Amino acid sequence: MATEVASPAFAPPGPGAWLLDRTHFTRPLTRFHAELFAEPFKRGFSESLARYGGLLEYMEYGFVEGFPYYRLQPVGAPPDAAGHPPREVWDDLPASHPEIKQRLATSATVFERKVWREDLERWDREVKPAAVRKHLELLAVDPAMLSTGDLLDYLDRCRRNQERGAYLHHLFNVPALLPVGDFLDHAREWTGRPAAALLGLLSGASPDPLAADKELERLTGALRDDPPALELLDSPGEPADVLAALRSLPGETGEAVGAYVDRVGHRPVNGEDVGEPSVIELPELIVGAIRSGLDETHFADDRDLLAERTAEIRDEVPAADRHSFDELLAEARRMYRLRDERGTYADLWAIGVMRRAILAAGRRLAAQGVVADATQLLEADWGELRGLVEGAKGVSAEELAERARYRLRARFSDAPPHLGGEPPVPLPGDWLPPAAARVERALGAAVQQMFTAPEPRTEERKVRGLGVSPGVYEGNARLIRSTEELARVQPGDVLVTNATGTAFNIVLPQLGAIVTDAGGLLSHAAIVAREFRIPGVVGTSDGSAVIEDGARVRVDGGAGEVTVVG
């Protein structure tokens, strides 16, 4: 008999105010991921903020009953500060506090130097290629063939790779967000346009959401030149069998399939945790993505429409500021792809590689009767995992199973939205030098569009949220509460779910529209809806509770409304 989820007692994980993160995770985290994530996240983000002169020293994560909470730590403030200091105290701090003085001096040069360009060049030239090489190097090892000692060493290597992936992701947080937020902040002031309309001008600036366009282009080209392989792809067999058969084909087609699968397969489909299935565990998604890739009519060329929208909004900008509008928009478009690339190339791929290694160890333990099935090992913390692989007595299979049941059943609605009081109010912008105020406004604008969603405004047959990608589409709702259910998605469905992660992009080309409970205008779901040019509504809060699976719905991505029509 399944054990019911107990009502957890929530206490702040430390001093200060903590906010629940509903954007990046879809369920409570595994112990393995929770204990690994916080330090490299904090270190990477802290270094990124310092490089740009941000007055936030770091953002810190803590986990309560597996739920992720974050806390903001301003430079020079005690951890439990309830607000900013009085004006007279703040005015003296730049002279008496060396770090604040340095941050203000740094921020004074950021926009003139366009520091983000240096970071993007480093990302493209050095960081991204090195991350890809490391992931592929680890994937070239078959952990099932390793001795116990070598397997433990391999697990260590995969874990270090995941730690580095988390660090790199967040080391590039500010360059990914600052130019976008800077454009948004200025353009709203100039035009009065809503953020959704302005962010729509960035459509097409992140053209490779899966980071696999080259591999997919190679694969689709090989398939078009290989009619028997095309017949195999369209055969009614099980997706896993179809994919295995395609991968085993000799010559260019088989090699191209292998390269594509290695590129997209080992990333968690949804959520950033080893506890979430990787794409390769749902082969129907890969087969569907390949079939969608062969459909050359899927993406319309909207450059003319985008140019018209840009010109229309630009005309509303005061004439004296139009050159600045053009420059800010160009920088935002230049950096926009980094928003998702950080996850796709850095930590998400590393998480999938780590999951693969843990499952290999889990299969070995399952064969020995230590655990009931391989997935139970994903619920162990690092010390427990190593101990079990080494053969030591440790956490029981029953305890691991109970942890899995808890994570599956617990909902974010079970967790308080904040712990430990209200977060501190930021410094008023007019207290700061102009460049520092600009940095703070730009980062605030971007972060707000990632995390902020409207209050629920549900009527009997209509839910409302943030319209993130214009257009109206009517289709069957496919309610997905867990990654494992994605196999039920059919071409043309309207996906209704809590939230989406970067690797979730593999299913997007098959959809007619997307609706999420969580997320803002810069959430993953919003970005990919714009890139795939399908209507999208995010931040509905209760869309997945109101819309029934299979219901006929009309999604209006401009108005931010989803109506049940049948």
Notes on the protein architecture:
Helices cover 50% and strands 10% of the residues. The chain is of the alpha+beta class and 566 residues long. Mean pLDDT is 90; it is low at 1-7. It folds into three domains: 83-203 and 315-414 and 422-451, no CATH class; 213-293, no CATH class; 462-564, Glucose Oxidase, domain 1 (3-Layer(bba) Sandwich), CATH 3.50.30.10. The longest helix is centred in the middle third of the chain and has 30 residues, at 338-367. The protein is built from 20 helices and twelve strands.
User: Number of DSSP strands?
Assistant: 12
Spatial strand order of the main sheet: 5-12-11-7-8-9-10-6
Low-confidence stretches: 1-7
Task: Return the average pLDDT rounded to an integer.
Answer: 90
| Class from secondary-structure proportions | alpha+beta
Helix content: 40-55%
The radius of gyration over CA amounts to: 24 Å
What would you call the shape? globular
Strand content: 5-15%
What is the count of structural domains?
3
End-to-end CA span? 37 Å
Largest sheet: 8 strands, mixed
Number of helices: 20
Question: How would you summarize the topology of this molecule?
Answer:
Blueprint: E1 18-20, H1 31-51, E2 56-64, E3 67-74, H2 87-96, H3 98-113, H4 115-139, H5 148-171, H6 173-191, H7 195-199, H8 213-224, H9 227-233, H10 239-247, H11 251-264, H12 283-293, H13 303-314, H14 322-335, H15 338-367, H16 382-390, H17 397-409, E4 418-419, H18 434-451, E5 462-464, E6 466-469, E7 472-480, E8 494-497, E9 513-516, H19 524-532, E10 536-538, H20 543-546, E11 552-556, E12 561-564
Parallel strand pairs: 7-8, 8-9, 9-10
Antiparallel strand pairs: 1-3, 1-4, 2-3, 5-12, 6-10, 7-11, 11-12
Helix pairs in contact: 1-5, 2-3, 3-18, 4-5, 4-6, 4-15, 5-15, 6-14, 6-18, 8-11, 10-12
